[in-house]
Amino acid sequence: MSKKGRVLVAMSGGIDSSVAAVLLHEQGYEVIGMTMKTWDYASAGGSKKETGCCSLDSINDARAIAVEKGFPHYIIDIREEFGDHVIDNFVDEYLAGRTPNPCVMCNTHIKWEALLKRADKLDCEFIATGHYANIHEENGRFIVSKGLDDNKDQSYVLWGVSQACLSRTMFPIGKYQKKAIRQMAMDMGFTDLANKSESYEICFIPDNDYRSFLKRRVKGIEERLDGGLFVSNKGEIIGKHKGYPFYTIGQRKGLEVAVGEPLYVTEIIPESNTVVLGNFDDLKKQEMWVRDVNFIKYASLNMPKEAVTRIRYKDPGTHSTLEMHGDKVKVTFHKPVSAVAPGQSAVFYEGDDVIGGGFIMKETIDNNKRIDNFVETDHSQQ
Question: Which residues, 6+ apart, have CB-to-CB distance to 332 below 8 Å?
Fold first, then answer.
């Protein structure tokens, strides 16, 4: 074994994880590559050619790099584990009127656990991924911090990883810009890899059409939910929609209603198959609650804490105050934020460090009162 240690590297076949593996290999670590088969898109009835980390081409790309550099490569099939945790949760969240975070669920419950299980069997001290993030130890805790490249930073999707997992994790490319990683791939002789296009879709929805995916997974969902009501914040009936799971907070396009001003989805009420629409100001909130919190930088919060809170992946963040209430966190924003979507992740930062994160809760709504107060005025044909 190398003096530096043995590392199990998650290799998707893309440029980031491939360069991460080669960097560690060149630094003197004993590298073992592993590609995880998480999803078979054809089995879901999709029409688009399989792409991304689960495709045969990507698996072959990862294996080819391992063979060229002379380190072992394995493929593991975790489709059953992935389906139980990630895909079932994805469907359940939409049916509950929330917007899921499949990448967070995968990192928290699948990727790290699956890697560590195999790392132990292969006597690997560490695991490594191609995430644009960094990790350091401070006061006995392993802290995730932002990657150097602000445009590629992936610390947001890592808030759920446990301390036990982080203590054995390496992020080899976190201190590099994306353009530097592309140049490294070129210098390593991997021209095709350097020019390989990136995929931004959810891995099990390569056509980026989650609505069609839901229809395939939940038989009869259209017939059961079609014809629900669009209502205003005042309770006026505006029109009919195609089923509440097919809408997300903040959505403007595809509503197919016209009332003389732009409308946005401000609330989803699954119990009554109702979607509430309002103007842009109606999307703004100054408070939210967060559940299933995992703390990274600190073991817990014993007093109000100032932080920058991000409510979606590309959100730059908003200054806020965090307060613990039992096992939940109340977030008070210092200025209103728009489109707070239940089910999405809220991630708290102190500088570049991740304090922790959790899932945004849906506010308690008196649905019966709202429905009883609907004004019988249909604006859908106006």
Answer: 286, 287, 320, 321, 323
Burial class (CB in 10 A: 0-12, 13-18, 19+), 151: exposed
What six digits make up the tokens of 299? 């073991």
Which residues, 6 or more positions from 200, have their beta carbon under 8 angstroms from its beta carbon? none
Give the per-residue pLDDT at 71: 97
Instruction: Check 53, 103, 106, 165 and give the catalytic one.
Output: 106
Task: Enter the tokens of residue 267.
Answer: 């609330």
106 as an active site residue: the answer is: yes
Look up 103 and say whether it is catalytic.
Answer: no
Pick the CATH number of 6-194 from 3.40.50.620, 3.30.230.10, 3.40.630.10, 3.60.15.10: 3.40.50.620
For residue 243, the one-letter residue type is G
Spatial separation of the C-alpha atoms in residues 84 and 92, rounded to whole Å:
11
Q: How many angstroms separate the CA atoms of 199 and 257, rounded?
A: 33
Residues with Cβ within 8 Å of residue 308, at least 6 apart in sequence: 317, 318, 319, 320, 348, 349, 350
Q: Which residue among 53, 54, 165, 203 is the active-site one?
A: 203
Instruction: Name the residue among 306, 378, 303, 296 with its Cα closest to residue 345.
Output: 296
Phi, psi angles (nearest 5°) of residue 302: -100, -5
Q: pLDDT (tens digit, 9 = 90+) per residue, 10-55?
A: 999 999 999 999 999 999 999 999 999 887 755 555 544 554 555 7
CATH hierarchy code of domain 225-382:
2.40.30.10
| Encoded tokens for 103 | 């990448």
Domain boundaries, the chain: 6-194, 225-382
pTM over 0.85: yes
- CA proximity to 285, closest of 344, 346, 333, 349: 333
The per-residue pLDDT for range 61-115, each reduced to its tens digit, is 999 999 999 999 999 999 988 888 899 999 999 999 999 999 999 998 889 999 9
Residue 186, pLDDT above cutoff 70: yes
Task: For residue 184, report the phi and psi dihedrals to the nearest 5 degrees.
Answer: -60, -45
> What is the pLDDT, as a whole number, of residue 367?
41
